[in-house]
């Protein structure tokens, strides 16, 4: 029996594993270096450190692993794909040098500049002390970003307040946000518009365009008047009704295809999933960030729409033989709402029971796990942050929203101390772009 190794224990990985099992035509077994309470029911827990690639590779070679899927940016940045490739194991994901497109904001803005990909104005600094001095010469509204991986959290909108910009730069250095070791700073021009996540699967030549989605990065709803920090994402929906055919063509031609071509020009054939975080402005779409893997929680919404053999598509991509027609997405909408555990009474709730995490809500509603673990036959929390994603399909966006929120609002799925945003998908219901724009 062929085995598929999935290195990831977040809700994104859970949703992909679920979809692989739902769509594959082959007899397979899923294996995970580490599991959450959701993926534990889908395959075998190898009980291997996710960063111990040597043990994973040794197990894979001894046990007929036909594909390794590296889901997380952390393992991609550490060179997991390079090591699996060197061992002769088919692997889905980019190599370490291309992964710097995400792990280094400085590399990302450099790449855009060199290949004519539209982005906001920026200044980049490898030393924080130079960024502190550089603030004085900037006269546009600013967004301060740490250079390394930080789970979406090292981003601060400071506007034209130069002192606040300097305070945030010092906070980046003192707070140790970067998980990948970089200490540089990018100061980006704050631009106006609406955000869109544009994702593709590519083998470096052929491209499958996934439906555009919209993430909700702020912790609280948009009308919240207090401090509203960035998170890794509190919910998403797809497709985005505001994306007209003209705008979609603009995104594909001026950004996504340019990026794939640019990597080829630099000697890299990207084989995996590429994510462009965009701001759609009056002047057209501009790149705010790159991810070199599928987005979370966008993937959970997309998996509710995905049709075709996902595993066969990933294997063909990894082998450099991607057929753009092997994957399709059904008509309708996917909505994903993230349930987050908050701190209570100054202590972290670990090992608390989760209600409804393993309930069956029907084919159109799925609960994907992230910060969960099995304690006997109980599903419990592993700490703070994103615990579950409730994802739903609907023939209309309104119906998908209603189905995703129903288990949460009725209390069928809940945590002892919890939070979720109440507005996921609402932007798609209220705003439209004039036909013919972005031609």
Automatic annotation (TrEMBL):
Required cofactor(s): Mn(2+); Mg(2+)
GO molecular function, one term: ATP binding
SUPFAM superfamilies: Glutathione synthetase ATP-binding domain-like, PreATP-grasp domain, Rudiment single hybrid motif
Stretches assigned to the ATP-grasp domain: 109-319
Pathway assignment: Purine metabolism; IMP biosynthesis via de novo pathway; N(1)-(5-phospho-D-ribosyl)glycinamide from 5-phospho-alpha-D-ribose 1-diphosphate: step 2/2
Swiss-Prot/TrEMBL GO biological process terms: 'de novo' IMP biosynthetic process; purine nucleobase biosynthetic process
Enzyme Commission (EC) number: 6.3.4.13
Keywords: ATP-binding, Ligase, Nucleotide-binding, Purine biosynthesis
Family: Belongs to the GARS family.
Name this protein carries in UniProt: phosphoribosylamine--glycine ligase
Species the sequence originates in: Candidatus Daviesbacteria bacterium RIFCSPLOWO2_01_FULL_40_24
Source lineage: Bacteria, Candidatus Daviesiibacteriota
């Amino acid at each position: 029996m062929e085995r598929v190794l999935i290195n990831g224990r977040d809700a994104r990985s859970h949703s992909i594993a679920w979809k692989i099992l739902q769509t594959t035509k082959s007899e397979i077994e899923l294996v995970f270096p580490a599991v959450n309470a959701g993926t534990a029911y889908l395959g075998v827990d190898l009980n291997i450190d996710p960063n111990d690639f040597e043990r994973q590779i040794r197990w894979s070679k001894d046990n007929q692993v036909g594909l390794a899927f590296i889901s997380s940016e952390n393992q991609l940045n550490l060179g997991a794909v390079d090591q699996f490739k060197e061992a002769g194991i088919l692997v889905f994901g980019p190599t370490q040098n291309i992964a710097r497109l995400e792990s280094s904001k400085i590399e990302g803005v450099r790449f855009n500049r060199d290949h004519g990909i539209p982005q906001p104005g920026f200044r980049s600094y490898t030393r924080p002390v130079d960024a502190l001095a550089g603030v004085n010469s900037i006269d546009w509204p600013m967004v301060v970003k740490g250079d390394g991986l930080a789970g979406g959290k090292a981003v601060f909108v400071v506007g034209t307040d130069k002192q606040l910009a300097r305070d945030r730069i010092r906070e980046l250095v003192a707070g140790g946000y970067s998980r990948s070791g970089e200490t540089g700073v990018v100061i980006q021009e704050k631009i106006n518009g609406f955000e869109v996540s544009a994702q593709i699967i590519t083998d470096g030549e052929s491209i499958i365009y996934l439906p555009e989605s919209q993430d909700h990065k702020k912790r609280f709803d948009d009308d919240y008047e207090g401090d509203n920090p960035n998170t890794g994402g509190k919910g998403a929906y797809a497709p985005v009704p505001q994306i007209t055919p003209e705008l979609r063509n603009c995104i594909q031609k001026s950004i996504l295809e340019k990026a794939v071509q640019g990597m080829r020009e630099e000697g890299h054939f990207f084989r995996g999933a590429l994510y462009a975080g965009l701001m759609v402005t009056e002047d057209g779409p501009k790149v705010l960030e790159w991810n070199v893997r599928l987005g979370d929680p966008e993937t959970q919404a997309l998996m509710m729409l995905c049709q075709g053999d996902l595993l066969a598509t990933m294997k063909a991509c990894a082998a450099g033989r991607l057929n753009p027609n092997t994957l399709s997405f059904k008509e309708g909408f996917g909505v994903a709402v993230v349930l987050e555990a908050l701190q209570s009474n100054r202590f972290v709730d670990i090992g608390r029971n989760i209600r409804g995490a393993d309930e069956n809500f029907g084919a159109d509603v799925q609960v994907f796990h992230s910060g969960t673990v099995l304690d006997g036959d109980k599903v419990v929390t592993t700490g703070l942050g994103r615990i579950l994603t409730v994802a739903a399909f609907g023939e209309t966006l309104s119906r998908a929203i209603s189905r995703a929120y129903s288990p949460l609002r009725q209390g069928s799925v809940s945590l002892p101390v919890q939070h979720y945003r109440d507005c996921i998908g609402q932007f798609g219901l209220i705003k439209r772009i004039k036909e013919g724009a972005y031609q």
